[in-house]
Design goal:
- This protein is mainly α and about 150 residues long.
- It has one domain.
- It has 6 helices and no strands.
- The protein starts with 5 loop residues before the first helix and ends with a helix.
- The relative contact order is 0.12.
Length: about 150
């Protein structure tokens, strides 16, 4: 077997770099989509009737953190991020019956993700991992908010 020549090594390196950059771009896009959706969900939960003021404030703060993550990962300024949020929210206002179960679970997952931001204090220093396992207390807290938003029929 002959050793790789410089031109073929360069070509291989270029292809690998393109693959890594494309994958990183896809991850940024996924993060941008998830954070925008969760921001909209948490903002909706924060506007439910009967919430205590500090609970509503926490939900709004979490929604703001996630909107900042969206802006950063999508490469847009906060004005553009707010426009995207405004366009996304109507889909949450009157979801179809088959979407309600999914949105209730999204509220729980987004709430668990938000807790990772809120635990960092008044400013977040890192983006917590999108949760796959959810503590029972978090599931119950955000699950009850989700049922208040989208009652089981």
């Amino acid at each position: 077997m002959r050793p790789l020549s410089l031109p073929s090594t360069s070509a291989l390196l270029a292809v690998l770099t393109a693959c890594v950059l494309q994958q990183a771009g896809a991850q940024d896009l996924r993060l941008a989509e998830q954070s925008l959706h969760c921001s909209a969900v948490l903002l909706t939960l924060g506007q439910l009737q009967g919430l205590e003021a500090d609970q509503a404030t926490r939900l709004q703060q979490a929604a703001q953190y996630l909107l900042q993550v969206h802006a950063s990962s999508a490469g847009v300024n906060m004005d553009k991020a707010h426009q995207s949020l405004t366009l996304h929210r109507p889909a949450l206002q009157a979801p179809a019956q088959d979407q309600q179960r999914i949105l209730r679970e999204d509220a729980v997952v987004c709430g668990a993700w938000a807790e990772g931001f809120l635990a960092q204090g008044t400013t977040y220093r890192y983006v917590p991992v999108y949760p796959k396992l959810i503590a029972p207390g978090i599931r119950q807290a955000y699950g009850s908010l989700a049922l208040q938003w989208l009652p089981d029929r």
